[in-house]
Prior knowledge:
By secondary structure, this protein is mostly helical. The protein is built from 18 helices and 5 strands. β1 and β2 form a beta hairpin. The longest helix has 21 residues, at 282-302.
Amino acid sequence: MNEEPCYSSFGEEREDGQVMKMSVESSLQLDAQGSFLPALRCVPLSTLKYQTVLQTLTEEGSGLEPVDDSPEMLRAQEEWEAVENIQPGAGGWENPERSVQLISFNEALQYFQTADLSACRKQIQSTVPHRGLSFLFHCLFGPPRLRDGLKEERDLILAIAQCSLNHEDPVHSRVLQTIYKKLTGSRFDCALYGTHWEDLGFQGTNPGTDLRGAGFLALLHLLYLVMDSKTLLLAHDIFRLSQHHIQHFPFCVMSVNITRIVIQALREECLSKECNRQQSVIPVVNSLYAATFLRLAYVWRTQQKTILDSSFVLKDLEILAKRNPKQLLRNLDTYLTKGTKELSSMQFSGARDLSGSHGTHPKADNFTGVCDLQPDTTNRAQAV
């Protein structure tokens, strides 16, 4: 239904930008409080920008000539120019006129491979130290050591886990925007800060505050999950489960915890055998992340877990990821090859309720902190 523009009464605009005045005062009507605003409320801001109405009102109301070259006027003009570029979106602000290109996992990884991570590399601890009898036991019965040719790749992963989110970095911003768009289906960019990140499962308006213990690797894992065609359906399935009215959980915070579990398994050399077999580290780490997230979703859905069970479920996942990562990887392969759309229909090996014996639930709805769990000093002898 087309309506006549409500600002047409201000006059006709000539080609040179001048306005033929039709008694601006007569076009404004007073409301009950003696305000002229009702006559202007229906005028879109983006339309007023291209009219000389404001200038006319200013000149007639004050009798003063506009000072075009004053700093105040220039700043006001810049702010006015930016008005039309702000559009409301779901949970924050979206800009329909600007949309950064999606970034793939390989492109983001290549960025870190060429970036200067010397400061981050100084903070990493490649393996968990062993002393005394623990050292002897680890040497005799522990998992095999990672081949020398793969240690650089391992250290790169651990260095990325030490990197914090930098909103000023274009690559970091593109990673965030890609995750947001792939999970929500939005075509437009969103604000780097805002409540829309809480809708995705972060604890606050700034995603960077939730990456403690996993660093930027947590965002790379989310990027891998949503940009790989094989795992995108899995990402959407888990994200929908996180929105359940009873079994809801913070999707991104849970993902960060899973990344931390994978980091710990890598440092304790629980993945060395599989990495040596595949002659690569990054694909194994990515697959274990997806497999652990799949396992969490399966247990969460089939055993009717809620947020009260979160710390127990995460602890059991950490134990399983260290003791038998190969089982998790097999389950992921089964899920991806069979193309199962519903997690509840999957038959996982070893899918017993490990958390059922923990008894009462914790009183608070708190997730296990990404740095709260200590390295497991027992049962390290089992290799992949």
